[in-house]
């Protein structure tokens, strides 16, 4: 009954299937301990996917003990333990989808949720924006103030990115100092406005309260798909956003780049800075 659900998978790879909650158990199965054993198993898989091996082992041992025990549980105790396990399972699953440093979503959640939103957008045509964000000159911050301080900067930037996001939108860490904002059910102009507002929040934050002379800005590439005229995968939309991010950086950084027809444009105060290199990125 015990499956190798958390062996053979690299917990740091960010890939693979996301562990799912166990199949609901009947009252009889819960009463004889089978349902609780599966809850322990599922929690063990979730914990192992984050490299929390000691806690995973504890739950796996509990599952083994329950399946090898012939002693029936007291009903009141059983109900209490099942509820506790369900809460612990929900927390473990949520933690398995979060970046441990910034508490934003991780690549595993991004890949899973973005695939669902792309499929949904293909049917509804309500619009989906994917924005790739990179901190400008972040290596200088690390080299000047140290990596632990750089981690604090990343945490603050994520807080600023997540302010005032529309319903259904979310932030995920893409890798290093790169993040993704996913904005479902949105028109192109509104997506650009959301990203430009986020850029301004980062630029105008009082960074000197963290360290004298510190300033932090971000560059953003916004790729929007209306969901009509052909299917565009999440990976393709991320590639488009990456090309637009490159255009924002080539145009001087601290900017939001987006595509209007065949032309790449910059939002807000940076709108006059677009370069010919940036324009060519529209065909990337």
Automatic annotation (TrEMBL):
Residues 126-261 form the GGDEF domain. Signal peptide: none annotated. Gene3D superfamilies: 3.30.70.270. Residues 1-33 are annotated as: Disordered. PROSITE patterns: GGDEF. CDD domains: GGDEF. One of its GO terms (biological process) is negative regulation of bacterial-type flagellum-dependent cell motility. It holds the Pfam family GGDEF. GO terms for cellular component: plasma membrane. One of its GO terms (molecular function) is diguanylate cyclase activity. This is Diguanylate cyclase (GGDEF) domain-containing protein.
């Amino acid at each position: 009954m015990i499956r190798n659900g958390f062996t053979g998978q690299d917990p740091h790879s960010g890939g693979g299937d996301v562990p799912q909650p166990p199949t609901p158990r009947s009252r009889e199965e819960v009463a004889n301990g089978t349902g609780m054993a599966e809850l322990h198993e599922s929690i063990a898989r979730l914990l192992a996917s984050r490299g929390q091996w000691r806690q995973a082992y504890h739950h796996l041992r509990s599952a083994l003990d329950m399946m090898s025990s012939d002693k029936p549980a007291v009903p009141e105790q059983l109900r209490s333990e099942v509820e506790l396990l369900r809460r612990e399972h929900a927390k473990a699953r949520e933690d398995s989808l979060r970046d441990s440093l910034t508490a934003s979503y991780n690549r595993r959640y991004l890949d899973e949720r973005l695939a669902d939103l792309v499929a949904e957008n293909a049917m509804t045509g309500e619009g989906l924006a994917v924005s790739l964000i990179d901190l400008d000159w972040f290596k200088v911050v690390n080299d000047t103030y140290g990596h632990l301080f750089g981690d604090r900067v990343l945490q603050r930037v994520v807080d600023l990115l997540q302010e005032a996001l529309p319903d259904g939108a979310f932030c995920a860490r893409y890798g290093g100092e790169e993040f993704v904002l996913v904005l479902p059910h949105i028109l192109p102009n509104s997506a650009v406005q959301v990203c430009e507002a986020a850029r301004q929040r980062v630029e105008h934050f009082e960074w000197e309260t963290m360290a004298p002379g510190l300033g932090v800005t971000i560059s953003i590439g916004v790729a929007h798909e209306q969901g009509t005229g052909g299917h565009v995968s999440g990976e393709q939309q991320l590639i488009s956003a990456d090309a637009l991010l490159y255009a924002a950086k080539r145009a001087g950084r601290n900017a939001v780049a987006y595509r209007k027809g065949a032309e790449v444009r910059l939002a807000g105060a940076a709108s006059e800075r677009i370069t010919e290199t940036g324009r060519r990125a529209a065909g990337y």
